[in-house]
Amino acid sequence: MKQRIQEVDLISAEEKEACELPRITEDKNTGRSRKLYIESYGCQMNFSDSEIVMSIMLENGFDTTSKPEEADVIFLNTCSIRDNAEQKVRFRLKHFNGIKRRRPGLMVGVLGCMAERLKTKLLEEEKIVDMVVGPDAYRSLPSLIREVDDGHKAVNVFLSKEETYADISPVRLTGDGLTAYISIMRGCDNMCSFCVVPFTRGRERSRDAKTIVQEAIDLFQNGYREVTLLGQNVDSYKWESEDQTEKVNFAQLMEMVALVHPDLRIRFSTSHPKDITDEVLYTMAKYENICNYIHLPAQSGNNRILDRMARNYTREFYLEKIKAIKRIVGEDCGISTDLIIGFCGETEEEHQDTIALMAEVVYDYAYMFAYSERPGTPAAKKYADDVPEEVKSRRLSEIITLHRETALIKNKASVGKTMKVLIDGVSKKSDEFLRGRCSNNAVVLFPRKNYQKGQYVMVRVTDCNTATLFGETVEN
Ligand code: SF4
Fold first, then answer.
1. Is there a single domain that holds both residue 77 and residue 129?
2. Interval 51-98: pLDDT, tens
3. 390, 464: one domain
4. Which of 91, 121, 403, 443 sits between 20 and 30 A of 355, alpha carbons compared?
5. Of 465, 466, 429, nearest to 448 (Cα)?
6. Residue 4 has pLDDT above 50, yes or no
7. In a domain, 15, yes or no
């Protein structure tokens, strides 16, 4: 699983809108004693965790506010995947310093991956912080708050082998009442050499399949029409009942959720090239409501770099997976990826291999990053971060430029086609236009007429740009 907030200043507003994480939108105010304000950083998994945290806090006598200056407790649910993700949090903590001076009773907690990576060190480095809580310790939040109430600093960064929060119903923070995340597993057993996730989220564990299906049923009955099944590596989802009579892998889980209702769309993230199976692809092809979109991080197009990254596949193996997707799911399956450029020792030729891979796959979307060394990772221990910053940024802008060209090629291929679209809102540009997503995850804008958010509509695509399709509704 990767971030979606980096490099934003290098892409257009439309591209930004297409990948931005939702923010907390509404205040839950029952007049109870204390108010919680929470800010989420990083990946969808972190956002989904904030929904679990919110549920635990509401259960324990808290209301919520979307204004930090009104809060009694502020939580920052943090990301640690790159240095500037952590710098953003430190910057926010300085901002909250001002609020704390005006409201001395204000409690500040740092949650998530940065909390897990730094542990008690964070209390020494950031005096404003009262509690540090890792991703597996959210059940202990009420008792940690009591510790702070008693005048102590509180820390719980225990990583669990069992915890999946399966019995906690998340409080939906997307605020659109239409799309929701369902976390199906936690942790990661891969040890990609650049990645902190195995250290900040622990070992892989899969959630009880029945609780996932029940959550999907509840969401559909409450008007939701799209769920995203979340995991660091969904392809290694494997659940077994205690009596070992039931075993469910990812393809089977997807089928169980697809059978909830044909009008409930299913998306999933993130896949891993070495683990994605043809069974998953055939299951996608079998159910119209499983969206034909796959996020398949490549990270690099060069075998020596992939080996240094410990990704456990080769460029050739990766391209075979892309061929299988196009053969089984279809040529118009949406494919996105993650790419890291300027990894330790990357030569110009090896960079060109990544460029060649992008040109061959023609991605719909790509999340592109310059390598950022993370303390404690195998890469930081084994390799020098020796690609100069100016070379990294030149290579990064090269692949962003190329990505724009290939994304436009992909969007142009949709012109003239009729797509089934789930309407998720009004265009930010004009409320005479509605916005929605096609099954392949493309964003499409079209005239409003009498259509409503939450409806499915057929749209014939008439035009496009790099980030967006434009079309006309096709009346039945
Ligand atoms: S698969 Fe690799 S990059 Fe993704 S979370 Fe796991 S270790 Fe990190």
1. yes
2. 999 999 999 999 999 999 999 999 999 999 988 999 999 999 999 999
3. no
4. 443
5. 429
6. no
7. no
Q: Report the C-alpha gap between 207 and 185 in whole angstroms.
A: 5
Q: Tell me if 363 sits within 8 A of 17, measured CB to CB.
A: no
- Whichever domain contains 361, its CATH number is 3.80.30.20
**163 located within any domain:** no
Is 426 found in the same domain as 403?
Answer: no
Q: Domain for residue 8, yes or no?
A: no
Residue 177: both structure tokens together: 């009442």
pLDDT average, residue stretch 193-206? 97
Q: State whether 137 and 77 are in the same domain.
A: yes
The last residue of a domain, from among 392, 412, 432? 412
Amino acid 475: pLDDT:
81
State whether 269 and 323 are in the same domain.
yes
Q: Are residues 395 and 286 part of one domain?
A: yes
Which residues have a Cβ under 8 Å from the Cβ of 98 and sit 6 or more positions away?
none
**Does the CA dihedral 138-139-140-142 come out positive or negative?**
positive
Structural domain boundaries, residue 62: 21-156
171-181 mean pLDDT: 88
Ligand 1, atom 1, residue with closest C-alpha: 190
Per-residue pLDDT, 31: 64
Same domain for 379 and 310, yes or no, is yes
| Two structure tokens written together for 374 | 């993370």
Check pLDDT > 50 for residue 236.
Answer: yes
Task: Please tell me the distance between residue 115's alpha carbon and the centre of ligand 1 in angstroms.
Answer: 18
pTM: 0.92
Q: 426 has which bridge partners? A: 434
The model's pLDDT over 438-460, given as tens digits with 9 standing for 90+, comes to: 999 999 999 999 999 999 999 99
- Identify which of 82, 116, 188, 203 to mutate to test ligand 1's pocket (most ligand atoms within 8 A of the CB): 188
Which residue among 372, 389, 412 closes a domain? 412
Buried b (16+ CB within 10 A) or exposed e, 311-341: bebebeebbebbeebeeebeebbbbbbbbbb
As a whole number of angstroms, the distance between CA 435 and CA 250 comes to 31
Residue 311 pLDDT greater than 90, yes or no? yes
- Tell me: the pLDDT tens digits for 92-139? 999 999 999 998 899 999 999 999 999 999 999 999 999 999 999 999
Clarify whether residues 364 and 383 are in a common domain: yes
> Which CATH number fits the domain that encloses residue 440?
2.40.50.140
Task: Say how far apart CA 373 and CA 381 lie, in whole Å.
Answer: 10
Q: Does the CB atom of residue 198 touch ligand 1 within 6 A? A: yes
Q: Please give the pLDDT value at position 175.
A: 73
Residue to mutate (ligand 1; options 195, 271, 308, 337; most atoms within 8 A of CB) = 195
Q: How far apart are CA 255 and CA 267, in angstroms?
A: 12
Does any ligand 1 atom lie closer than 6 A to the CB of residue 272? yes
Average pLDDT (293-313) is 98
Residues 204/233, Cβ–Cβ less than 8 Å: yes
